[in-house]
Amino acid sequence: MKRRILFCFSWYTSVLICFIFTSFFLIYSSSAQKITQKSNQYRLYQALPVNNIEIQTNIERGDARSLIIENFFISYNSELAGSADVFIKVADFYKLDFRLLPAIAMQESSGGKKVPEGSFNPFGYGIYGSKKVHFNDWGDAIETVGKAIREDYLNEGLHTPETIMTKYTPPSLAKGGAWAKGVNHFMEELK
Fold first, then answer.
1. Longest dimension (CA), the chain
2. How far is residue 11's CA from residue 114's CA, in Å, rounded to a whole number?
3. Cα-atom radius of gyration of the chain, to the nearest Å?
4. What is the pLDDT of residues 140-161, one digit of tens each?
5. What end-to-end distance do the CA atoms of the chain give, in Å?
6. Which domains does the chain have, with CATH numbers?
7. Is residue 83 within 8 Å of 139, Cβ to Cβ?
8. Residue 102 backbone dihedrals phi, psi, to 5 degrees
């Protein structure tokens, strides 16, 4: 019985202490407290730029083939870099793979670096021994050879560098097709 009385006394005492503590806490937290504002010098969580800077990006849809050819010839320090648009115009007009003429020019003359003086003939077109075909400028050469590739090769069923080689440069057949391998290599670079 003493245990029960002791238990009841301790229980009531602890309830009374909790009640008093809770009452004081409620009175303290519900009373009005004066909050003083400190300096307005800083604003937390806010970063304001000094100037309103506007960044704009324009993405234009266009044909990247000309840029691909230009960068390709620039990488080889070729004078033909300035003729990239002509290569595209001729390729589109004669329905050629846009990479074919630049690849032939690289294979035949290192992109116009090794041509007969004043010939503007980077394709080695019509050059046999002492016979040399001359053009007025790079554009004239690209146009003439593009037309010839269409009419004398593609229209005759010669569609790949390997088949074009049989007519364009037959001696390369005896050398294991080095010409076609070179043209294919440069065409691959232009992808």
1. 134
2. 108
3. 42
4. 999 999 999 999 999 999 999 9
5. 99
6. 65-189 (1.10.530)
7. yes
8. -60, -35
